[in-house]
Structure prediction request, 259 residues.
Amino acid sequence: MDLGLTGKRAIVCASSRGLGRGCAEALAAEGVSLVINGRTAETLEATANAITAAHGVSVTPVVADIATPEGQAAVLEAAGTVDILINNAGGPPPGDYNDWGRDEWLSAVEQNMLTPILLMKAVLPGMIEREWGRIVNITSVSVKAPIPELGLSNGARAGLTGFVAGVSRQVARHGVTINNLLPGPFETDRLKSNFQNAADKTGKAVADITEARKQGNPSRRFGQPDEFGAYCAFLCSQHAGYVTGQNLLMDGGGYPGTL
Prediction:
């Protein structure tokens, strides 16, 4: 299927690895030029070179913390005209709600709520003027089914979800869509670190925790970044213009609800 994205330009945040890289790879395969972002120069440069070599598109790496005003400004300046925005950022650390104070909450909200909102605000005027735009926010399955040890993430991402529910309806008439992709367990460094954290707390082996989590999912496996990227690319395509304001689960069937 031709997604109709050749010649478009995208910002993909936190895209040197994991789900962000999966999205960047999938968009590049459709002829989208990219501005990618990460905090580690060596890793980001290697990713940019690999994507360019594989897909022949322009890839501009911007080393910056996207959760800072300076990082956001650098990415937006490098991008210029933005047709597609993929918001992504690492989640706050797990823990117990009793241990989270004001600083921890402010950091979580800054990273997983305010940063994507500010980036959306920056690119929406141009998208509206051109009467075409796609925004996908990578959030979490915890928006629908809160995970107790990820309370900081639960709260901040729920706030972003509420904002998107309103603004997506305001801009839809201009040909701009905004959707949230809610990943469950994907095979990423983030998932591995969560398993290590659980092992440290319980004394269980990481391998045992990993296998138990895998067997606890209806698919009996973890998702892969490339399949996440493919779903993201479809949401950005010409064929998904009637899909907006949605929270789309991708979790192997792990969420047990009917709706």
In short: Residues 199 and 206 are 6 Å apart (CA to CA).
